Amino acid sequence: MSETLKLMALDAEDLLVISAHVQDSVLRSSEIEYSPSNGQLIIPINRFAWDAPSARRLLFKKYQRRRSVLHFSRVTLLKSNMIDRRDDAEVKSLLSVTFHAAADENDPGGQIMLNFGGGGGLLLEVECIEAQLTDLGAAWQASSKPEHHL
Fold first, then answer.
1. How far apart are CA 2 and CA 66, in angstroms?
2. Which of 4, 42, 85, 90 could form a disulfide with 135 if both were Cys (CB 3.0 to 4.6 A apart)?
3. H helices then E strands: how many in the chain?
4. Opening angle at CA 49, ends 138 and 94, nearest 5
């Protein structure tokens, strides 16, 4: 098994690293938890382990996924498009996480966008970038490797 990840992002460059690790993660929309009172967004995901060395993938015969949590702090507003957090059956594939800085270069805030396959996304207004990605446990065999056709 590959090592579990525990990453933190405090700037746009760090967030790109987290975005690379969560690409092709799948999640249930109903598991997304937003607490406006404390500015926390918590998203449990099944992360495709792009970081697993190919030699270790042979132990699984193919590829692996890991249960992980993507966590954002200092969220002042959450908007969603084509995401129904009340639908227990809705499963989304996370494609990317991007940051768009505030117009004032002295303002550390801005918008974080989570883009999903098939359309839809989450837009987070943030005071600043404060994100974490944490693996929760052991890996399991994935049935296939995600592919993107351009």
1. 10
2. 4
3. 2, 10
4. 115
